[in-house]
Amino acid sequence: MSPPSAFPPEIYDKIIDEVSSSKDALAACSLVERSWKPKSRTHMFRDIDFTVCSTGSTDLHLHKSIEQTAAFQDNVASNADVALYARRLVVTLNRSGNIASEIPQASKLRNLRSLTLKCSNIIVYAVNDAILSRLLSFVRHNQNLEYISLQSLIIDPSAFDVFMKCIGIRAPELRSLHLQSVWGPDWTTVAWNRQKSAQRSQPKSHTVRRLCISHCEDGAISMFLSAFDLKHLDRIALMNLDWDSCVAMIVAILNSPSLTHFTLDLSDHRQFLTGEERIFDRLVNIPTVQLLIKRFSDAPMVLQGLQRAASQRKLFLKQLHLHFRQYPCPSDTMVDAALHELHLIIPSLRVSIGFQSQEGIQTTKIGALFRWMSQTGMLHFDSLDAWWTDEAARY
């Protein structure tokens, strides 16, 4: 039994918190006395990264990778003394092929809050694929997951449908979801289109508050919407999606009264904006809107659409950020005029300008393109609020 301490335990907890960035210091603290061990392990094993790092195809590479997985399984995933403290798990699969045996099982990792699966374009061929079963085991064993990120996965449409349903059912506490680069194999294009057009009416998960979807197949959007109800959505970012996917998502959030922050990539969709008044009607009802636009010459059309919508309905739009992928030309002065007209309808609107690359920007030259905004002191330069990049750290 440890001798009685001269100080309250809160003092020791504070000391351990101060050295939480050093694994060696935490390991030393855990050996001081038994009462220090839980707090030390809370920091030591909170964040866990596992990588299937075998990039070769020889039997030696495969053997080493399987040994690494077995060691992780024994020392972390199946070790209750360690797995109990894990809250954030990042699994990176660095090679293709049949690597199911190299993906650990999450038998004891039952307290995860954040799960990131970086799949490096591995292919899931069917619903009964062993890789899919291993990936889904992380979801099935963790009903307290609040954040899930699925990245760079090539997957059969039926298997992806199962994946979304499993998340919707088995992760009742899910608050944030990030889908990036989810595609179907080339030979399943017809199946993806069939999934895209299918109508579904089964129960949906209502818990997602934050959502980012980027570089995903059109059919993936349809299957996501069949599994999740976005009625309580707070933030959404739609990046590098086809126009049909953008429209489907915007229609799905028409009745989301809690939505406060919307990021929409319009870089390749200028030709589709004409006549899409419902898009602008929705945007002016969201307090903060970020629009990614390719060229300065594309912005007046977008701003005029917002102006028309703002003149016909009650407004909630308070902050507008225009993020350009290309620098302006000296003749690009129409944006300033369009912003002036929009400000006449929404006098309290705060507008900021940003660029994909901030290096080499001469604000004096760009300011000359915004004479009205410069004269009124309304010209603000800011970076894109890419909140989804740090989302995992919130949980």
UniProtKB/TrEMBL annotation:
Q: What protein is this chain from?
A: Uncharacterized protein
Q: Which domain of life is it from?
A: Eukaryota
